[in-house]
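User: I'm putting together a small comparison set for a docking exercise, and I want a reference complex before I start. The sequence is below, and the ligand is magnesium ion. Could you produce the 3D structure with the ligand included, as structure tokens?
Assistant: Of course. I'll restate your input first, then give the structure tokens for the complex.
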Amino acid sequence: MERFSPIWRKEAPSEGVSETIIEKVSTFLSGYESLTLELREKSIRELLIELGEPAESIPQAVLQKRVSKPAGTQQMGARTNRSRRNQADAPQDPREQTVATLSQATQARHTQKSTNRSKRVNGTLDSSVQIIPGIGPQNAKALEKQGVYAIRDFLYYYPRRYDDYSKFKPINKLIPGETVSIVSVVYSVETFTRGRYQITEAWIGDGTGKMRISWFNQPWIANQLKVEQTFVFSGKVDTYLGKPLMSAPDFEQADQENLNTGRIVPVYPVNANLRQNYLRRMMFNTVRYWAETLEEFIPEDVLESADLLPLSNAIEQVHFPDSDSMLALAQRRLAFNEIFLMQLNVLSQKRTWKAVSANKFRLDDEQMNHWTDQLPYQLTGAQWKTLNEIRGDIDSGQPMNRLIQGDVGSGKTVVALLAAMIVSHAGGQSALMAPTSILAEQHYRTFTRLLEQTQGQDWSPSFSADRVALLVGSTPEAEKRIIREKLASGETLIVIGTHALLEDPVQFRNLELVVIDEQHRFGVEQRAILRAKGTSPHLAVMTATPIPRSLALTIYGDLDLSVIDEMPVGRLPIKTYVMDSLARERVYRLISNEIACGHQAFIIYPLVESGEDESKEGSAAVESWETLQKAVFPDNRVALLHGRMKGEEKDNILEAFRRKEYDILVSTSVIEVGVDIPNATVMLIEGADRFGLAQLHQFRGRVGRGADQAYCILVPEKDSTFENERLTAMTQTNDGFKLAEIDLNQRGPGDFLGERQSGFMDLKMASLTDARLIELARIEAEKIFAEDPELNQEAHAALKKRLTENQTKTLGEAS
Ligand code: ADP
Ligand code: MG
């Protein structure tokens, strides 16, 4: 307090605090450090009264020394804590007997119920952080940079990691390499210069031994360490000539609330204007005063059945955990929040959508079979299942909202096109949007081929390839105008295109079906724009990034889910090998052999890492391409594709590759998802250890699309990563869903989803949790929703409030 006083004194005038008050507070705080604990409490109490607070309104919490601990926690803190106070208040509480058998979360809930909550006198959780003593305009600005404006934001500003300094040890028991705290007296401090360094060195001791600690270029440390006083030092133990030693440990005077030492210490994300120790101190004060005012919004029965910590407790513990196990419980609770709220959002979104009506489209089985008989192949069982689910949806009178998930190459396109044909058969218009023109053209070609095959059948209204249009960015303006006219008049029944479809002048007469391919490539708004071009059209979104079912149900809870989990028959599983760079010659031989058989090959190079010179992007690919063409495959035609090329240029090269004008395509990771070149049989991935599992699987999906045996060769950059778990997983399965599961387990849901659904939701804590918790949160949310969808029950009032607050921040899925 005493040290904080001069800082505050500087900031206070700019916060409008009067000179008299500044004087009073400063006087009171001078000499504070030398007071005993009791006297400190007394002096603060007096100060508050002096400042005009009525004595009875001074919250008890002011006198608390530590963040409260739930009852029954094994660690007995050295200081008073709320649970012990509660025991004193109600010593006969019969629950005390059973506490030992209850979970820590349950105990915390019980403790909380009996807590007498003090009301905050000034401000609310939505007040600016500037009302927190010690946070002035400058620091508030630094916090704003981190997205923290209100006190509530600050409470949800979670530590990035923790340093466990909670293990105190005597000096003679120190083991090199371990991270510990020691309580020691300072014997001597001195700063001297050695070469370009200023070294501050202190000798400390605790009765069991002596040791040396030192700092480089931080001469001010010498003023902070006071000889003959006791400090807590926390850090990693080193040795020098067999003697223990610590370099630049964190330290604090022993009689303080040890925030920076002696406990599990939170480490926050900071920026240049925000110091870690300052932030920690401010957080400590904030949590202590404000955490308990957070309103619990999860209904009691959910807290019980999911065995969750109360919100206030979780916030306290996530910042200043009493133990590892309390920290884990706090993280679990906060992760639950995120998933639970998201799920409720998604469910109410779905309900809203279901409330409107949509036109019905139906095609009888006989006609359907007529069409599918014309396909050059038989639909797989999974394709049929999905097609029939779609048929049910579009004939239901409510708009379809369906996610079609299918591994790469599972044949999603044809299902979408058949759906469009059903709609158009009855005169409705369909739009299919793909992320790149090459994909749009590919779909267009598949479609016109399909139409040619079904020509002359019992088809009404007369429907031919000229009622299908392709609209991409590079479509000439004159042609675009004609397409737009035909869409507006209803003459064109199906349009396939890219973002160009979103343009304002593109209007439909009766848009009844919207299909979005590679949906993760589009933003929520873009999907909404296309939908808005019709009145409640049916919607299908397609994705090739497999997500385990339980997760998909949570994230895409507002969509119905179809999974194409079966590959077309006759496809040989791709053979995948991990090879070290020495075996590259063999790989080149394999490529030569495949080319000799009339096949083609891809060779992928990783992008230059971000942060390096961007103009160098793709340089590895460019250089290698030259070598490959000149030295390795002089008799073959090698094409090059990289990210610095324009979209059109890229498309042209891919087209030429498709037309077999090249044998080998050297590319950076820009090679587009969804590209279908069945003649390619080899996928060589250089620097494979640099790619994520999902991406590797996508690359691999570019081959093995025809009837011939295909190969995927993974060459890690560093031979030491030969054993790379991810790469091994690739060799073990071709199943994207299995790989997604592995990926999920390796990275945790937050990272896993963050990458795929970036910007989609605010999963701060959920990355630390596991898939089981996600499932649990979903089930609990569904239970509540089934019983009280509008959250009108008394018990759900707080939840409803929280959800409306959140709605502006978190968007529901798909469009
Ligand atoms: P994706 O699901 O990755 O979008 P596509 O729809 O591009 O896959 O289909 C991949 C390839 O499989 C295409 O060449 C397509 O013609 C072919 N295909 C689709 N369905 C079948 C099937 N039932 N049997 C055989 N080949 C099929
Ligand atoms: Mg596709």
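Residues 377-380, 383, 406, 408-414, 544, 568, 674, 676, 678, 705 surround adenosine-5'-diphosphate (ligand 1) (CB under 6 Å). DSSP finds 29 helices and 21 strands in the chain.
User: Thanks, that's exactly what I needed.
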